[in-house]
Design a protein that fits this description.
Blueprint: H1 3-10, E1 15-24, E2 34-41, E3 46-50, H2 57-64, E4 72-75, E5 78-81, E6 84-85, H3 91-97, E7 102-105, H4 109-112, H5 119-129, H6 136-149, H7 155-158, H8 168-180, E8 186-190, H9 198-213, E9 217-221, H10 225-231, E10 234-239, E11 242-248, H11 249-254, H12 259-266, E12 280-283, E13 293-296, E14 309-321, E15 330-342, H13 357-364, E16 372-377, E17 380-381, H14 387-394, E18 397-400, H15 404-407, H16 414-419, H17 434-440, H18 450-455, E19 462-465
Parallel strand pairs: 3-9, 3-10, 7-8, 8-9, 18-19
Antiparallel strand pairs: 1-2, 1-4, 1-5, 5-6, 10-11, 12-13, 14-15, 14-16, 16-17
Helix pairs in contact: 5-6, 5-8, 6-8
Length: 472
């Protein structure tokens, strides 16, 4: 065993949980949705929590930070944070811990960041509220240093921007900056690299790895087994609220003991899977663990030949003016962008975070006006007309957003969200009802299915998809 590994083994755990169960009043027939969960994380150690959407990962993490909600019912045989019994903590105790002992990086950055504060204010508040620093100049320097540390370019300018003014990747990095600003002992990260391109993903993982080398613990939730393999010391695999496999990362990923773990690994996309649907694991209700899982890789139906142009983008450009405090400089985001999309065709737009992909999508959707150029839909003017003139065609163009949770009304149930799109559908092409849509999209109560469930009821001529698979 390496000296680093020996030091980890000898160190007292930052968090230790035994027999954690989580339930909600009136839900699941009163039965716990997470049962007998055990966890121990020591300084300088990364533990990864993996499993399909709906397996209980996120609610487990929220419960460990007392953020599961008022209706949550938790119980544990043992629950200690830095040697203190967390079962006896009041809300005042938790407030003192959050930020200095624990730092949280949530998956949906747009929901997690305050829309009324700049990202610089978000990070500075963590530093000042815990009195890490008290001098205003020192707080500002620490804020900019932290923003730069997570790979945000031009931190002095970006610090003056609000969450809605940033790309999804930049928002996620701002959230990570807020989580690490006070140098917490334990970082809890729920899909921290979901919205990031591979270059920035590597940069953010390097930041987290550096914090681990400095002695912080990391609890990582991820669907990306490549990320897990590169950073985690141990892996915990969850299915239906239970731990089904755990151990050192290399052992779990190369010699998995449980059939479910083997099928998760087998379902990872490969270059050889082109031309067929991505593999999915199917589970037989009531079957034993040994026979419960089967891997399915269905062939895709034969694709139709590309048809007429349905969407055309002609030499669009877009610039933004920086905030007054940043000197009111003009920032060119898009310049002379042209492409078209034909019926039965998929066009991908790729680029690093902040390269203008989401801005381009907003112009295509009619949510922003281009400075120059034009967008046409089904051969008719689109970007150059007022919204009242677009209404006739609006249902022909639908959008799957990057931040699904922030795009839905939290007061609506999944069925209401789907049904809301039904009344305007053409009677001759009546869209499927909400129950059929729910069946076709898997589990719409899970993050990864929410975007799909809300869009297909319209059967649009064209759909804009902004990293909709990122959370699944």
């Amino acid at each position: 065993m390496s000296s680093v590994g020996s030091q980890i083994d000898r160190a007292a755990p930052i968090v230790e949980v035994q027999g954690l169960s989580i339930g909600f009043a009136g839900a699941n027939g009163g039965k716990p949705i997470v049962v007998d969960f055990d966890l121990s994380i020591r300084p300088g150690e990364c533990v990864a929590l993996v499993g399909e959407s709906g397996s209980g990962k996120s609610i487990t993490v929220r419960s460990l930070l007392n953020l599961a909600g008022d209706g949550a019912r938790t119980a544990a045989h043992r629950f200690e944070i830095k040697g203190r019994d967390a079962r006896s903590f009041g809300e005042a105790d938790w407030r003192k811990l959050r930020g200095t002992v624990t730092g949280l990086v949530m998956q949906d950055a747009l929901v997690s960041l305050d829309p009324l504060r700049t990202i610089g204010q978000e990070v500075a508040e963590v530093i000042s509220s815990h009195r890490i620093l008290t001098d205003a100049g020192a707080i500002r320097d620490r804020t900019l240093q932290t923003l730069g540390k997570v790979g945000i370019p031009n931190p002095a300018d970006r610090a003056l921007q609000y969450a809605h003014q940033l790309s999804g990747g930049l928002r996620q990095r701002a959230l990570i900056a807020s989580a690490i600003a006070a140098d917490p002992d334990l970082i809890v990260a729920d899909e921290p690299t979901t919205s990031l391109d591979v270059t920035v993903q590597a940069q953010v993982l390097q930041v987290l790895a550096e914090r681990i080398r400095e002695g912080a613990g990391l609890l990582l939730i991820s669907h990306d087994l490549a990320v897990v393999a590169g950073i985690a010391d141990r892996v915990i695999v969850m299915r239906d609220g239970r731990v089904v496999d755990s151990g050192p990362t290399r052992d779990v990923l190369t010699h998995p003991r449980h059939p479910y773990t083997r099928q998760l690994i087998a379902a990872v996309p490969s270059g050889r899977s082109r031309g067929s649907r991505l593999a999915s694991a199917r589970f037989e209700p009531g079957a034993s663990d040994a026979t419960a899982v089967s891997i399915v890789r269905e062939p895709l139906p034969q694709r139709q030949a590309a048809g007429e142009v349905v969407l055309e983008v002609k030499e669009i450009s877009k610039s933004f003016i920086a905030p007054k405090a940043a000197g009111r400089a003009k920032s060119v985001v898009l310049q002379d962008i042209s492409f078209d999309v034909r019926a039965a065709e998929v066009v991908g737009i790729v680029g690093e975070s902040g390269s203008g992909k989401s801005t381009c999508a907003k112009i295509v959707l009619g949510l922003l006006h281009p400075d120059d150029g034009e967008v046409t839909l089904l051969g008719e003017p689109w970007s150059s007309v007022a919204e009242v003139g677009r209404r006739r065609l609006r249902r022909k163009l639908q959008y799957i957003p990057q931040d699904a949770l922030s795009s839905f009304d939290p007061r609506y149930r999944v069925r209401n969200i789907i049904a809301e799109n039904l009344p305007g559908a053409d009677s001759a092409h009546r869209a499927p009802g909400p129950d059929r849509v729910a069946a076709r999209t898997g589990r719409p109560e899970c993050r990864s299915s929410r975007p799909r469930a809300a869009i297909i009821v319209r059967r649009p001529a064209s759909a804009g998809v902004d990293r909709a698979g990122a959370s699944g």
